[in-house]
Each structure stands twice: as structure tokens, then as C-alpha cells.
Specification:
By secondary structure, the protein is mainly α. It has 2 helices and no strands. The longest helix is centred in the N-terminal third of the chain and has 30 residues, at about 5-35. The radius of gyration is 20 Å and the shape is elongated. The N and C termini lie far apart (about 40 Å).
Length: about 80
């Protein structure tokens, strides 16, 4: 883990929490299915957790990449140059 990005540890904690939520919701879905209860709400929730987990993992990869220097000064786009 890089210590120069404090947000990275927050993302890692969120990934860990999301993985725990997925495990809990998976257990719930299995129980609902065994009891004959409609599991559609749990499936939708699992899908949302999975999408969140994928987004968090993408954010982690972005935070882990070295930052490249921009060829343009801050707040200046190529069209602003003379």
C-alpha cells in the first residue's frame, strides 16, 4: 500500500466492507432460495454490491498508478495556449 495516497487505505477498507456485504447477502440469498422465498430483491442487491466492488477496485488501480505530469500548466488547456 502506498502511504502517499491516504485515500487508498479508505478505498481498501471500502473494498473489504463491500466483500463482506456480498458474502452476507449471498448467504441470505441461499437461505431465501431454500425456504422458497422470492430472492429477486437479494439478487438485485448483490448485483449492486458487485458493481460497487468493481468500481472500488478500479478506483484503487487508479490511485496506485503514478501520477504523470501534464504538459500544460494547471487550469490551462491546449486551446488556452497562444
Amino acid at each position: 500500500m502506498r502511504t502517499d495516497f491516504p485515500d487508498l487505505s479508505a478505498v481498501e477498507r471500502a473494498i473489504n466492507q463491500c466483500e463482506k456485504q456480498i458474502a452476507r447477502e449471498t448467504d441470505r440469498l441461499v437461505k431465501q432460495t431454500k425456504l422458497g422465498i422470492d430472492p429477486s430483491a437479494s439478487r438485485r442487491l448483490l448485483f449492486a454490491y458487485h458493481e460497487s466492488l468493481m468500481a472500488l477496485k478500479r478506483a484503487k488501480r487508479v490511485l496506485e498508478k503514478p501520477v504523470k505530469a501534464s504538459p500544460f500548466p494547471v487550469n490551462q488547456s491546449p486551446s488556452d495556449r497562444k
